[in-house]
């Protein structure tokens, strides 16, 4: 069998919206590093990843690339404005818990926002219509193979019955938002579910047996 194919990509973007610069290194669909332009350093996506080798693409070289990107953007914008339409993607959001939810037990909600282009969206949370600002964390933009971006937002929660969590995605200059909801459900314990299913199967079997006896008696008559 042929070995699996993998993709290592380094994507630099620049734009008039914030963030004005972004640079990420991905392996397949996973982000490994992102470049902190104000700090001029590579930052690992996960703390257990090793540090970026300084001899590989020094920060000074990346800053020159970023300057070139901005110069090209301004020049191409002047040439294309009014001639080519602006490209925009409609974000798609999905909210799910990190672990199987149990009412009253701490968990973490993830809002995964896909099909982002350009990479300039705001992600916010609400609980029962009230904004949440504490303990919310966001990842940096991760480029995807279809020339778009994905971004994650995390919210620690302790779900209770009746809660309605909302992830809201807005884009600068747009009059619309993308909204995704998550409502915790009280799962039926597996033992109760198994007992109910066994009882229903037994009742169905008895009913079919009685129906068969009735049909036999009717046929003899």
Automatic annotation (TrEMBL):
<dbReference type="InterPro" id="IPR007110">
    <property type="entry name" value="Ig-like_dom"/>
</dbReference>
<feature type="transmembrane region" description="Helical">
    <location>
        <begin position="199"/>
        <end position="219"/>
    </location>
</feature>
<keyword id="KW-1133">Transmembrane helix</keyword>
<dbReference type="InterPro" id="IPR036179">
    <property type="entry name" value="Ig-like_dom_sf"/>
</dbReference>
<keyword id="KW-0812">Transmembrane</keyword>
<dbReference type="GO" id="GO:0019882">
    <property type="term" value="P:antigen processing and presentation"/>
</dbReference>
<feature type="domain" description="Ig-like">
    <location>
        <begin position="85"/>
        <end position="180"/>
    </location>
</feature>
<dbReference type="Pfam" id="PF07654">
    <property type="entry name" value="C1-set"/>
</dbReference>
<dbReference type="InterPro" id="IPR014745">
    <property type="entry name" value="MHC_II_a/b_N"/>
</dbReference>
<dbReference type="GO" id="GO:0006955">
    <property type="term" value="P:immune response"/>
</dbReference>
<dbReference type="InterPro" id="IPR050160">
    <property type="entry name" value="MHC/Immunoglobulin"/>
</dbReference>
<keyword id="KW-0472">Membrane</keyword>
<dbReference type="InterPro" id="IPR003597">
    <property type="entry name" value="Ig_C1-set"/>
</dbReference>
<protein>
    <submittedName>
        <fullName>DMA protein</fullName>
    </submittedName>
</protein>
<dbReference type="InterPro" id="IPR013783">
    <property type="entry name" value="Ig-like_fold"/>
</dbReference>
<keyword id="KW-0325">Glycoprotein</keyword>
<dbReference type="GO" id="GO:0042613">
    <property type="term" value="C:MHC class II protein complex"/>
</dbReference>
<dbReference type="InterPro" id="IPR011162">
    <property type="entry name" value="MHC_I/II-like_Ag-recog"/>
</dbReference>
